[in-house]
Records
---
Amino acid sequence: MAHTEYVYDLADGDGTMKTLLGGKGAGVAEMHRLGVPVPDAFTVTTHACVETMNRKGEWPETLWSEVEEALTRLEERTGLGLGDPEKPLLLSVRSGAVQSMPGMMDTILNLGVSDETVAGLAAGGDERFAWDSYRRFIQMYGEVVEGIEPHVYEDALTAIKNEKGVENDTDLTTEDLKELVARFKKLSNEALGGEWTSDPKEQLKRAINAVFQSWLNPRAEVYRRANNISAALGTAVNVMQMVFGNRGETSATGVLFTRNPSTGVDELYGEFLVNAQGEDVVAGIRTPRPLEEMEEVLPDAYRELLDNMKKMEQHYKDMQDMEFTIENGKLYLLQTRNGKRTAAAALKVANDLVDEGVITKEEALARIEPAQLDQLLHPGIDPNHGQQSIAKGLPASPGAALGKLCFSADDADVRGDNEPVILVRFETTPDDIHGVIKAQGVLTAHGGMTSHAAVVARGMGKPCVAGAHGIKINPEAKTVTIGDKEYGEDDTLTLDGSTGEVYAGELPLVPPQINDDFQHIVQWADEVRRLGVRANADNRTDAMKARELGAQGIGLCRTEHMFMAEDRLPAVREMILAENDQERAAALEKILPMQQQDFEGIFDAMSGLPVTVRLLDPPLHEFLPNLVEQSLKVQELELTGGAAEDIEREKHLLGQVKKLHEQNPMLGTRGCRLGMLYPEIPEMQTRAIIRAALAVRKAKGETVDVEIMIPLVAYAEELKRQRAVVVETADEEIANSGEEINYTVGTMIELPRAAVTADQIAEHADFFSFGTNDLTQTGIGISRDDAEQGFLGQYVIDEVMPRNPFESVDRDGVGELVRIGVDKGRSVKNGLKTGVCGEHGGDPESIDLFNEIGLDYVSCSPYRVPIARFAAAQAVL
Ligand code: ADP
Ligand code: MG
Ligand code: MG
C-alpha cells in the first residue's frame, strides 16, 4: 500500500471506493485488481478537490508533494520519466466524479510531450504519431487549462489543411504537423502574452487544478441539477499513463456497451476508429465504424476485448459502458461503468440478468430507477400514420418527439419553456446540455450511437436521432434543408428515436404501451412491497387509468373540480350568494344530483377498492369572479348606462366578492372551516357519496369502500363536529335506502397543529391522510406558488435546501411532522390507517421515508402509480 492522504496508486484502490476515487478511479482500480489490462495510474481523491473548493481554490499543503511522490512511483513502475528526452512518460489527466457525468468535465491527454521529448516519443519508429500527439496536446492543454479560445487552434488547423489541399486531419504529413505545432505554440504564447509554460511538471499541476475547476463549470452544474447530484461531492483526478490509439494502422480506440442501451438486447453495441485518439470516436469529426468490423482489422485484440467485456459484465452483474484503446495490437481498457440506458432497456436487462441467473429478482428490482420509468409512460407514434419519412439517421435514443425547431442549445433552453422544441445540431457537444434538457428530442447531422449526445439523451429518456447525413443545417440562418425543402424555426418535425426516422409536421400519437418486461418486474415489486399504492383521481377517466396502472384504490378524490365545471358554476354561485338557509338549500339541491353522478362514475371504475373522497376544500371566492374584474364590470355598466337590474345584480355579486375576499386565502376560510360555517355543504356531499355508492352496488353487485375525508382540520373539535354532520346524514341516507353499507370518516393531517395534536384528533378519525403539499407550505411557512417563482430555485442551486421540498419531502421537518402524526394517532388508536396524498406520494425518495415511518399507503397521480410501486418495493429492499 503506497497511498498517502490525498493520492492513491492504481493498486491501492478497488471498485468499492467510488466516493473517494470517483467512479472512473474505482473502476480502473477494480479492473486492474481483476487482471484486466489497464494503463498504470494514480488517483487524486475527491477529498482533495473538496478541500481545494473549501479553501477557495488553494490546494491542501501536502497535495503537490504527494502528487510528486506518486509520480516518482509511477515513473519507477513504468521505467519512463515525465520530461525524460529518451524515455518520456506521457500522461492523461482525467476527471472522475462519484456518479458518472459523461463528457461534462475536462480531461487532458498527452501531457509530457514537448520539444525535449517529442524525439524520444518518436523513437519507437513513428515520427508522425509523435507530432500528432504533440499538436493534440497543445490544443487540449491550451483550451482546457489555459482557457484559450478553441477557434484559435481550429482556425490554424483548417488553414494548414487548406494550404496543403487535404480534407482530413489524418492526411497531414509529419512535416505538416511539425509546422502546425510551431504555429500552435506561437498562437498559444500570443494568447497568453508570453506566459505559455513548457515545463511538464508545472503543466501537470495546472492540469490537475483545471480538472478540479471543471467540477464547477456551467455544463457540469446544469447536469448535476438535472440529476440531483450534490456539488459538495467534488471530482477525483485520475493521472494515467497514456496508451496510444494513434500509433498507426494496428492501433485504435473505441467505446462499447455490453448490451444495446436503447433496447436492452444482448448484442454487440460499439464503435471504433483505427489510428485515432481520445474523443475522436465520440466527437463526430470522423465517422466511427461499428465494432463488429474490428474482428477483421484487429482480430486478436477484438477477441480479447470481447472476453474482457463479458468478464466485467459478469463481475459487476450489470450492463457496462466501456472505453478501450489498442496500441500496436495490444488492448487496454480505460474505463468501465454501469451503462446509461433507457427505461425499456433497463427493464429488459434486469429481466434477462435474472433469467441468466446472474442476479436475483430483488437485485433486479433494486437496479430499476423508478423515476426513469416515467419514460415508458409517454405516448409513441401511431404505427398507422401512413407518412413518408423525410430523413433517416441512427436510432440513438428511442421514443417519439415533436416540436418546433431550435438551432442552438441557448434557443432551446429559452423556447423550451414555452413550447415543445426539437434541438437540431450538426453534432451536439457536452456544452449543449442545457438545451438538451429543455428539448423534446435531439436531431443531429453527425455523430454516432455512442456520442456524448446519445449517451446523455438516453440517460434522460429524450428521443434522439443522430447522424442524419442527408440534412444540411445552417445555424446562422436557423434553417435545415432536408431533400429540397427548407425548414425553419416555425416548422414542426416529428422524430422517431426508435427507428431513426424524421417526419415533417406532427404525427399522430398513441398512448404508451406497457410491455411484458414491465409487467413482469412490476409483479416482483408488488410481491415485495409493504406500502399500498393508490391514486389521486377525481373523474372516471383518471380512475380507470389509475386502476389499469395498478392503483389499489383512490387516496384522494377532490370534489372541487366537480364544482368548477361550467354547467355547475351557476348553481354553485347561487349557493354561495344565498341570502338565507332556504336559498342555500335550494341551490345545493341542484348540485346534489350532479355530484352523485360524478361519484357514480368514479365508484363504478373503482368498485371493490377503497375510495377516499375529500369534502370541499378551496375558499369559496375561487368560484366567484375576481375582485378587480368584477369592479370593472360594474363600473363599465354604470358608465355605459346599463340596465338598472343588471347593475343591481352585478353590484350584489361584487358585494359578495368583497365579503369573501381574503388577504391570505391559503390560510383562510377553506377546508373544514367552510363546512363549519355552512354544514349544508358537507351534508349535501355526504348524501351524494352514499347515494352513489348504493347505486353502483345496485347496478354492479359491488361497490367501493367509502372513505369520507374532512380537510384542513387543526382542532379535534372541528373534526368531532364535522364528523357528526357526516354520520348523521349518511346514516339517514342508509336508513332510507333500507340497505346496509359501510363507510368510514377520517381527516387530512395537513397543518402542523394537527400533526402534533394527532392523538386528540385520532379519537374522532377512522383514518389519517397526510396532505403533504399543504403540510409543506404550512410546516416550512412557504407558499408554493410564490416560492417556486422566487427564492426557492436559488435555494436549491445554492444547496440551502437539498431539494425542492414540494418535489421531495423535507425529511427532517415535514417528514418529522408526519412521523409525529402517525405515532400520536396510533398511540390512541392501534393500527390507525394512515396514508399520504400529496405530490410526494409519487416521489421515490419520499416514498422511502413514508415506508420507514410505517404509513399504510401512498397516493399519487395515475401515471406515477407504476413508479410508486417500484419505489415502494425498493424501500423495503
Ligand atoms: P470522459 O469522462 O469525458 O469520458 P475520460 O477521462 O474518459 O473523459 O477521457 C476521454 C477519452 O480520453 C477517453 O475516452 C479515452 O479515449 C482518452 N483517454 C483517457 N485516458 C487515456 C489514456 N491513459 N490513454 C489513452 N487515451 C486516454
Ligand atoms: Mg470516458
Ligand atoms: Mg390540502
Note: Residues 138 and 262 are 37 Å apart (CA to CA).
---
Amino acid sequence: MSELILGIESSCDETSVAVVKDGKTILSNIVASQIKSHQRFGGVVPEVASRHHVEQITYCIEEALQVAEVRKTDLTAVAVTYGPGLVGALLIGVQAAKAFAWANQLPLIPVNHMAGHIYAACFEQDLQFPLLALVVSGGHTELVYMKEDASYKVIGETRDDAAGEAYDKVGRVMGLSYPGGKEIDRLAHLGEDRYQFPRAMLHEDNLDFSFSGLKSAFINLDHNAKQRGETLSQEDLATSFQASVVEVLVTKTIRAAKNYPVKQLVVAGGVAANQGLREMMQQKVEEQLPETDLIIPSLRLCGDNAAMIAAAGHVEFAQNKLASLGLNACPSLSF
Ligand code: KG4
Ligand code: ZN
C-alpha cells in the first residue's frame, strides 16, 4: 500500500497543505499566499500572518485532500513545520496538524522548515549522499553537509543578513513592492554591472557569508546619488547588486564542495528561484565540479510550500522520528 503524507506549512506568509505519495509524487500542493496583505507594510507583519493562517488552514487542508482525491482515512501520517519561523504563524500549523492527527488517529511528524527546502530537490531526482545543500531564503543562508538522509551539519552560514533579506531590503530602497527578490532578478537581466559592490568574506578562509555590508553600500550609493539630485538606473543597480550576491554564493558553495566532496549539490529556498544564481551555479559546477550532480528545484518548489515538508517528513517517518501531541512551535530551531 502507498504511503500518503499530509504536509502542513505555515512558518511565514504562506499557508500551504500538500499530499505526497511515497515521498516522491505530489498529489496536491495548495499554497495560499498572503503577500498582498503584507505589501502595503513593506514586509511580513507577524500578527497579520497569524490571522491569515487561522482563516486559511482548514480550507487548505480540505482542498489538498480534494485535489489529491484522497480521504482522511487513506492518510498514513501528518508532517508539520514546527520551526524555524514566526512563532504565531508556526503555532497555527502545529495546532492544526495536532488536531488533525489526533482526530484521525495519525502519527505526527515534526519537520524543520530548512530540511523541507532541501528535500524539495527530491521531486527533481533521487537524492544521493553525501550531499551538499546551499539553502538561501528570506531568513537563512546556510551550507549544509548531509552524509546521509536526515543528517545535517551546517558548515557555513551568514553572520548577519540572509541573502533574501538583503534582496528585500534593497528592493524597498529601490521602491519595489515586497518581496523585492523576484523583481530585482528581472531587472538584473536588463542592466550593466557598473557599480562595484563589495563581495564580503569572499577571500576569507571559511565558508561563511555576510550581506549587511553590501546592503549598506547599496543604501549609501542610493542616498548619495539622491543628495546630488542624480537618478541611477534601476536596471544597473539591480545587475550590480545581483552580481555581488551571486558571485559570493556560487564561489563559497563551490569551495565548500571542493572541501567536502559530495555526489550531489542542491540549491534550495526562495532565493534558489533566482535566474542569475541558477545560471551561474550551473556554469561553475559544469566547469569546476564535473562529477557532481547539481539539483535545483523547479521554481514553484523553491518558495515555501507543504510538499517539501511532506517529503522531509517521509524520511523522518522512515526513521520513526515522531512527535507527541505536546509538540510546540520552535521559532529559532536550527539543524
Ligand atoms: O524560502 P522563502 O519562500 O521563505 C523563507 O523561508 O524565507 O524565501 C523567500 C525569499 C524572499 O526574500 C524573496 O525575495 C526571495 O526568497 N526570492 C528571490 C527570488 N524569488 C524569491 N530572491 C532573489 N531572486 C528571486 N527570483
Ligand atoms: Zn522558506
Note: The first helix runs from residue 35 to 39.
